[in-house]
């Protein structure tokens, strides 16, 4: 079961104004907690997308390599590497 975490963040000045404009009747969120959870979800999605993009680059490079660079390996060799 995921652990519940309580965060206490002090935001003032222009950042506080920005948050306040996004909360309540005129904002996109009902409360600060909802806003922060959405920001965290978006950041998690961004990090996952960056990881996937790096993997995609590596796979594209591997698939673009000529067959002459590949070397045949048996299962024992692969297991020994790990």
From TrEMBL:
Gene3D superfamilies membership: Antitoxin ParD1-like
GO biological process: regulation of DNA-templated transcription
Domain of life: Bacteria
InterPro entries, alphabetized: ParD_sf, Ribbon_hlx_hlx
Protein name (database record): Addiction module antidote protein, CC2985 family
